[in-house]
């Protein structure tokens, strides 16, 4: 079973890519909505939650764990790999391809404040963006709007425009999305950028990596495909309401507080 988790529903953008790439595999997705958003939380809090979620998903039969959250990857993936004995895939802003493909030498990264300030992003910039100007911008309130299912409301449009419109005068030609919630707002981003800005969503690269690791470890799906959705919120209704909106069809949602 492929296990995935995020602070909330943003990781469903990665779920879509993994399902498309590995259609025969069962997938369990856990949304830690009781602690969402992770961005304002301390590193220690995020690590503690990651370990609790990781151990739970292992107990449910995980073959591989996908940390479908940039903030959790940044803060906790080292701790997860040290404690859990299964392959673990994290996610990070697609700075490398955006910088490599830039013609103007100027790109932007959109992510949470935690991710933008992280040592991991600094390493990505040092390793892959030498000679490229990288504008780092936080999508304030974007995660909360996606969690609320407000993908096209006027408030969400205004929040997106407040971040993206100023970038249009900065001669950028690529934007790396550094939060798994943000791909759900791509239509609103495109309203501002049009087609002249390339957007990089790392979800497909993550799906390829999951497939590669499963093959390397000699794993197969055994033909037992199912999709399971879990929230740590006491109320599973909100997540159940959002699934058709975010991934195109309804599924039952279980509540598992983990406290």
TrEMBL record:
Q: Quick one: which residues bind substrate?
A: 6-7, 38-39, 70-71, 180-181
- Does the keyword Phosphoprotein feature in the UniProt annotation? no
Any one Pfam family here would be: Asp_Glu_race
Under Gene Ontology molecular function, one entry of this record is: glutamate racemase activity
Q: Can you state which reaction this protein catalyses? A: L-glutamate = D-glutamate
Asked if the record carries the keyword Cell wall biogenesis/degradation, the reply is yes
Q: What PANTHER family does the record tag this protein with? A: GLUTAMATE RACEMASE
The protein's name: Glutamate racemase
């Amino acid at each position: 079973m492929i296990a995935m988790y995020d602070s909330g529903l943003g990781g469903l953008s990665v779920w879509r890519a993994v399902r498309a790439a590995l259609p025969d595999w069962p997938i369990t997705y856990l949304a830690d909505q009781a602690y969402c958003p992770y961005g304002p939380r301390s590193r220690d809090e995020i690590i503690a939650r990651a370990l609790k979620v990781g151990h739970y998903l292992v107990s449910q039969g995980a073959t591989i764990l996908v940390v479908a959250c940039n903030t959790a990857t940044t803060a906790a993936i080292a701790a997860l790999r040290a404690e859990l004995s299964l392959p673990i895939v994290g996610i990070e802003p697609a700075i490398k391809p955006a910088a490599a493909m830039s013609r103007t030498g100027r790109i932007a990264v959109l992510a949470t404040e935690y991710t933008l300030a992280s040592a991991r992003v600094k390493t990505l910039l040092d390793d892959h963006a030498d000679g490229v100007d990288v504008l780092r911008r936080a999508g304030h309130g974007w995660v909360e709007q996606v969690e609320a299912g407000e993908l096209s409301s006027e408030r969400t449009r205004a929040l997106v425009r407040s971040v993206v419109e100023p970038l249009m005068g900065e001669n950028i030609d690529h934007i790396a999305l550094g939060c798994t919630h943000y791909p759900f707002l791509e239509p609103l981003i495109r309203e501002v950028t049009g087609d002249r800005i390339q957007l990089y969503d790392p979800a497909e690269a993550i799906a390829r990596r999951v497939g590669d690791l499963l093959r390397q470890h000699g794993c197969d799906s055994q033909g037992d495909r199912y999709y399971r959705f879990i929230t740590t919120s006491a109320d599973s209704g909100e997540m159940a309401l959002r699934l058709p909106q975010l991934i195109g069809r309804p599924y039952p949602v279980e509540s598992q507080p983990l406290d």
